[in-house]
Amino acid sequence: MNAATRVMLLIDADNVSADVIEQAVARTMAEHGAVHVRRAYCNAETALKQQALFKRLSVRPMVNISAGKNSTDIALAVDAMDLAVAERPDIVVLVSSDSDFAPLVIRLREKGCRICGIGQQGKTGEETVAVYDSFIDLQHHQSARPAVAPPAAKRARAPRRTKAQEPAPPRPPALPEDVLRILDAVPELGAGGKIELNQAAERLRGAKLLGKSASSPKLFKKYPELFALTPEKTPNKVQYVGPPLS
Predict the structure, then answer these.
(1) What pairs with residue 228 in β-bridges?
(2) Is the residue at 246 inside a domain?
(3) pLDDT tens track for 196-233
(4) Number of domains into which the chain is organized
(5) What is the model's pLDDT at position 63?
(6) Which of 37, 120, 206, 241 could make an S-S bridge to 16, C-beta 3.0–4.6 Å?
């Protein structure tokens, strides 16, 4: 290519994939050397998504904020005609598979430009290819995800050897509710010690478990297997002899 040849690269970034854009820039650089104008036309969403790509390829994003149909294509066409007058390029490389650019291609050719088209394989129609001076289709390479290896079969664990379980000791029988209240009122009994009947009676009356004129020995004798009165004939002490308290 002549050193004075000026090349202009215009990309319809809403029409082709990011990897096709990257291939198109690399191919244009390899074929023509310096590319004097590099612009990508797209909406705001694409510009934000491809920001890193445009920066790496030194492509100037031309963001179209209009939401109308074909508004990005129209923006590219208007800018292309302005650049054709201002920059006077010898070669215009148009990256798009859109057939709507046929009138633009014809008009740029009338301005003395050679028009090269680059499209994305599978999206370009025959009528689009025919209008350009040269046209190539680039294949879109989808990012391959690494195959996930199936989880390895877990080894069957041998059953752990456990000692023969000893039979659990028999649970003590549940104490009657009245007995539990007596032990709560006179906690010394639960400790297994002997306590004076008079002292126990005061505690029981304070807990409203024994009336003022009621006999404490009579209360304890209701549970002979749990309380022992000593001495046997004229008892003056009481002791809890039931199962251990947890």
Answers:
(1) 239
(2) no
(3) 988 988 888 888 888 887 888 888 888 898 889 998 88
(4) 2
(5) 94
(6) 120
